[in-house]
Structure formats: structure tokens, C-alpha cells
């Protein structure tokens, strides 16, 4: 997969979001721009304060740039079946390849964060400039040179960082950062690296060790990719989405981050900017199902165990920190934002909301886990039984809905999710995985929810299930009702037609009515629509939809955002977005089930 030839040009200091690739190792994720600049890295953890934040502050933000000192064009792609990223720069004097890796070791994740960047000369000669400037919100930046080789140590808040480079790179400290330059010819190579830890001593590896770990890390990714059971074609796109989800699995806990970024706007200049560096129960549930579909049993088990542990120890919440605590309240930061889009925030208001969809997410996850041949322990079974009882008690109450809206309503999708939770609970009880004491009550409430939806949420005028009773607005998330097995095949098919008519924009879809004025199209919805069409038997139409989506998103290196501008194809929102990638995996998995001729 390749991004094609690009210049890496910035507009008012900003790269287009599709100009970024993501590298990570299961603990942190960095965004690397097409011009060789790392503009975002929360170190040493995904939810740490950013060490590099040029993404949100093009003038004063921190970055780690390795950029040709002459005009250049770019070809970028990930190595096959790997999260090691390669960028080939071409100038009038030569060609060189920048290889980037967030390194791991042969025994798994390293006990520190290690960013490795190697420049290999391919043809002629090329000169590069180097800038390594941490973000300026730290309380101290304290450079010095130690006696163990040429390296620079710096402190930013609680982060201890170490900048290292090979002998051909000339660097010095200036203006609270490192600047330097080097030149490579055909067959030559130079390596630059960062080591980071938080309130902990750091080892000082040699450049040779760091360089070698690029290849070790690449092999580890390739080995993992061989375990992926690709469902359908094309394999490369399927595995790329699986690799993106693997980046978002926070290995210290098993939590799944929604995205590694905060405050990337859903519309340029708009105010719908959110912090997604947390673990949503919804996203975790869908991602676990995607991992199971891809045959990644270990990742699915780790994520499901984390989810059940948090429900038992912290309580029922919409989202958690990656460490498993309640998400902090929203705090605004005095930063310009991506292309002037404010506010820049940390924290998330969803933490305090009531969302009935979480019940369905949890039980669908448990059902998929068991359906893959796994079993539930007694404590987990008891916890799930209590949650089913709670769902049976609460489904009649309004909530914030799947889209986390401030207006509490009787959202149709929330009711469908409650139906889904109780339907799965009954199935798990019948399979001997849950206690059967309350089974009959779960059956009664499941059927009452179904009848309530049919009576109150269907619009004869729209020929569709509406967003909630009393409105004529539509909600694209209702496409998920097909996956959940909700009753009413003909009405669901008609609803999909209505969603296409009113929310569709080319291959894309808005989340719900009226959003074309506030944000871009939500990519997961369009993948859900393709999946739903396939599940209802429209294999040809579903395949055409999926192909059109993947083609339209082929603007970068294969990582997908939350949204796009349907007019320009420009990426919007936080990225890489786990919900988008897992929706892609599920759509391709369902299409792989298409019956053969005859």
C-alpha cells in the first residue's frame, strides 16, 4: 500500500491529516508527517502529556524533524505486514529512505519507549536538517552531554528523555532543543533515536542496538501478522486495519484506546474537538469482535479480561482511562489547535453520561468470545447476570445515545442495544454460560423492548426507524441493528434505503440528520452500511460500497481517521481511529461469507 508521490507541503504550518503515518509498540503512538516531522507523540504512554505537539500548535509546538534541505517529493508506505514506516525522499541530487519504528525487543515490549529513525542513502547524495524540540509546556528542559557517547538528556515535566545519533550526524543544543544536519550518499546510513521514560531511570543503549531493533521490531510485526486469519479480499487492506487496531491495544493493561490523539476537529474551524485517548466500552466491545474475526485470540482475551475487571472493580461506565480509572473532566488548553480549530482539550464528558448501548456492547462481546470456543469464569458470569438484570430495569429510561448527545431521549439505537443485551444474555444462559435464574425475565423484557420499538420508533412517512420517537430525523447507527440480529428484516432494509437517501454523500454517510452543517461524514457508519447490506443478502451492492470506501480512503499510508469531508476527501477527526478500522474489518469479514455459485 502506498501513498503515491507527495510533497509534504504545509499550509500555515500544518500538514493535511492524510499526510501522517502512525508508529507504535503497544504503549505509545507517534504521528510522523510526510515531510519527516514527528508532530505528535505522547510519551511514554498513549495518554501521557504530549512530548511533541506541533500537530496542535504549528508555531511553538514540539517536533522531531528529519527533513531534506532541498525541495523534495515523497513516496510512503508501511513495510508489508508491519507497522514499520518507510518514506522515500527524492530531490534533484539523490534519493534516500527514512525508516521509522517504535522499537520492541525479541521478548516483547521494551521497558522504555524507543523511537528509532534511520536514513538510508539510495542514489546520489542528500543533505538533511534535524530539529528535536520538546513541547514547551514542561517545567524544565535541562540539556547536558554525558561521558557515554554523544547523547543529550532532557527533562519535560515527568519525562526523562535521551536523544542519540550515529557519528555522521552533527548536532548541538539551541533554543531548548537539538538542531543539526547530516548527509547520506548511496549505501550510507545514519540513525537518530529517542529514549523516554516517566519518573524512572533510563538505560543508554548503543546506536547499533537501536538500529538492530528496527529489524527485530519489523520481524515481530510480520510474525504477528501471519497469525491474522484474513477474511476475504483484499488481504493487504484487512491486515493493515488489524495492525492499526494492534497499535491501539495498550499492552500494560489490555485497554483499547479509541485513538492516540486529542482535539483533531470534526470540521476545520469547528468546536467539536474531543480527547479520544481513553478506552470506551463500545469501542472495546467492537474491537474484541474484530480481533476474534481476525483470529487474534490473545488480543481479544486481554481486552475482554480488562473490560470485565474494570466493570467489577470500578463500576459500570461509558469509558475509562487506559489504566482503568474514571476519565478526568474536560480541561481546555491555551493552544491554537489544528488549523485554528479550538478548543484543545483533555478529559472527556462522556465519562458521566448514561448510555444504554453499553449493555449491548458488553453482551455482544461476551457472546462473540464464547462463540469462538472460549468460556466464561464464574465471577464473570455472575457480573454479566447482574448487568442483564440492570438492563432489564433501565431500558425504559432515556439516555445520551450512541452519539453521546447532551439531550437525553429514548433513542431507537439505545433500545435496540438493550434488546441485543437481553437477547445475548438469554442465549448465554441457554448455552450454560450464565445462571438461568432470571432467564424468563430477560426473555419477557427482550420481547417488550422489541414491541416498544416497533410501535414507537417506526415512521410510515419516512419508511424508516427514526432516531427517537417524536422526530423525523434519521440515525445511521441503526445499520448496526442488522448485525445484532434485531427483528424486522424488511423494515431494516427500508431504513438502510432511507439512510442512503438522506444521510449519504457519495460513498460516505453523516451520523444523523443535520450533521452536514457541523461535521464531516463518519466513516464507521459507511462501513456499517456495507456490512448491513451484505448481511441482508445484497452481496454485489455491499462489495461495491466497500470497494468505493477503501478507494476513497487511499490518500495516505493506510491509517483511517474518524471522519472525512465528503466534498474534498480530506481527513477529519482523531486518527488512527479504532472504530473506523474495526468497522472495516467487520464489513470485509461479513462479505467473505458470501455463498459461492450454486
TrEMBL record:
UniProt keyword terms in alphabetical order: Hydrolase
Domain of life according to the entry: Bacteria
PANTHER family per the UniProt record, alphabetical: GLUCAN 1,4-ALPHA-GLUCOSIDASE, TREHALASE
Coiled-coil zones: none
Domain GH15-like positions: 236-544
The keyword Hydrolase is annotated on this UniProt entry: yes
Record's keyword annotation contains rRNA-binding: no
Pfam families: Glyco_hydro_15, TREH_N
Gene3D superfamilies cross-referenced by the UniProt entry: 1.50.10.10
Protein name, UniProt field: Glycoside hydrolase family 15
An example Gene Ontology biological process: carbohydrate metabolic process
Entry GO MF terms: hydrolase activity, hydrolyzing O-glycosyl compounds
Trehalase-like N-terminal domain: residues covered: 16-90
Amino acid at each position: 500500500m502506498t501513498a503515491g508521490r507527495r510533497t509534504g507541503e504545509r499550509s500555515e504550518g500544518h500538514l493535511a491529516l492524510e499526510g501522517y503515518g502512525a508508529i507504535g509498540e503497544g504503549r505509545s503512538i507517534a504521528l510522523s508527517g510526510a515531510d519527516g516531522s514527528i508532530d505528535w507523540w505522547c510519551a511514554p504512554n498513549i495518554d501521557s502529556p504530549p512530548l511533541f505537539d506541533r500537530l496542535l500548535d504549528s508555531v511553538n509546538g514540539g517536533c522531531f524533524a528529519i527533513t531534506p534541505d532541498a525541495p523534495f517529493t515523497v513516496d510512503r508506505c508501511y513495510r508489508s505486514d508491519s507497522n514499520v514506516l518507510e518514506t522515500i525522499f527524492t530531490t534533484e541530487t539523490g534519493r534516500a529512505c527514512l525508516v521509522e519504528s517504535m522499537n520492541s525487543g525479541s521478548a516483547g515490549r521494551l521497558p522504555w519507549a524507543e523511537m528509532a529513525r534511520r536514513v538510508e542513502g539510495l542514489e546520489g547524495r542528500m543533505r538533511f536538517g534535524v530539529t528535536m524540540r520538546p513541547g514547551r509546556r514542561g517545567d524544565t528542559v535541562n540539556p547536558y552531554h554525558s561521558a557515554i557517547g554523544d547523547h543529550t538528556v532532557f527533562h519535560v515535566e515527568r519525562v526523562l528523555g535521551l536523544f542519540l545519533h550515529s557519528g555522521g550526524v552533527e548536532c548541538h543544543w539551541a533554543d531548548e532543543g537539538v538542531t543539526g544536519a547530516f548527509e547520506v550518499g548511496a549505501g550510507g546510513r545514519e540513525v537518530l533515536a529517542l529514549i523516554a521514560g516517566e519518573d524512572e531511570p533510563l538505560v543508554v543503549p548503543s546506536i547499533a542496538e537501536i538500529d538492530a531493533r528496527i529489524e527485530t521490531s519489523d520481524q515481530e510485526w510480520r510474525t504477528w501478522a501471519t497469525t491474522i486469519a484474513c477474511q476475504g479480499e483484499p488481504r493487504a487492506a484487512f491486515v493493515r486495519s488489524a495492525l492499526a487496531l494492534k497499535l491501539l491495544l495498550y499492552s500494560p493493561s489490555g485497554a483499547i484506546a479509541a485513538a492516540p490523539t486529542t482535539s483533531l476537529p470534526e470540521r476545520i474551524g469547528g468546536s467539536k474537538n474531543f480527547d479520544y485517548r481513553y478506552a470506551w466500552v463500545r469501542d472495546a466491545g467492537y474491537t474484541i469482535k474484530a480481533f476474534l474475526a481476525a483470529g487474534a485470540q490473545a488480543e481479544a482475551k486481554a481486552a475482554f479480561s480488562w473490560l470485565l475487571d474494570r466493570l467489577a472493580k470500578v463500576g459500570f461506565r461509558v469509558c475509562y482511562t487506559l489504566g482503568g480509572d474514571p476519565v478526568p473532566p474536560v480541561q481546555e488548553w491555551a493552544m491554537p489547535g489544528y488549523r485554528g480549530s479550538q478548543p484543545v482539550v483533555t478529559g472527556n464528558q462522556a465519562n458521566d453520561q448514561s448510555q444504554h448501548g453499553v449493555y449491548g456492547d458488553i453482551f455482544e462481546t461476551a457472546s462473540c468470545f464464547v462463540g469462538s470456543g472460549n468460556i466464561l469464569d464464574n465471577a464473570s458470569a455472575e457480573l454479566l447476570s447482574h448487568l442483564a438484570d440492570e438492563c432489564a430495569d433501565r431500558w425504559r429510561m432515556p439516555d445520551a445515545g450512541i452519539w453521546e448527545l447532551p439531550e437525553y431521549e429514548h433513542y431507537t439505537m439505545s433500545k435496540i442495544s438493550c434488546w441485543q443485551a437481553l437477547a445475548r444474555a438469554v442465549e448465554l444462559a441457554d448455552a450454560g454460560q450464565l445462571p438461568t435464574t432470571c432467564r424468563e425475565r430477560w426473555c419477557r423484557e427482550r420481547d417488550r423492548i422489541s414491541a416498544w420499538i416497533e410501535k414507537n420508533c417506526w415512521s410510515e412517512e419516512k419508511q424508516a426507524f427514526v432516531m427517537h420517537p417524536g422526530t423525523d430525523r434519521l440515525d445511521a447507527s441503526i445499520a448496526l441493528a442488522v448485525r445484532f440480529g434485531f427483528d424486522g428484516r424488511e423494515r431494516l432494509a427500508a431504513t438502510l434505503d432511507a439512510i442512503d437517501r438522506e444521510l449519504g454523500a457519495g460513498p460516505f454517510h453523516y451520523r444523523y440528520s443535520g450533521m452536514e452543517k457541523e461535521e464531516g461524514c463518519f466513516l464507521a457508519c459507511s462501513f456499517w452500511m456495507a456490512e448491513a447490506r451484505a448481511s441482508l443478502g445484497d452481496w454485489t451492492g455491499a462489495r461495491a460500497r466497500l470497494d468505493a470506501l477503501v478507494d476513497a480512503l487511499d490518500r495516505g499510508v493506510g491509517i483511517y481517521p474518524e471522519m472525512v469531508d465528503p466534498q474534498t476527501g480530506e481527513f477529519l477527526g482523531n486518527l488512527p481511529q479504532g472504530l473506523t478500522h474495526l468497522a472495516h474489518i467487520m464489513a470485509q469479514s461479513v462479505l467473505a461469507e458470501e455463498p459461492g455459485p450454486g
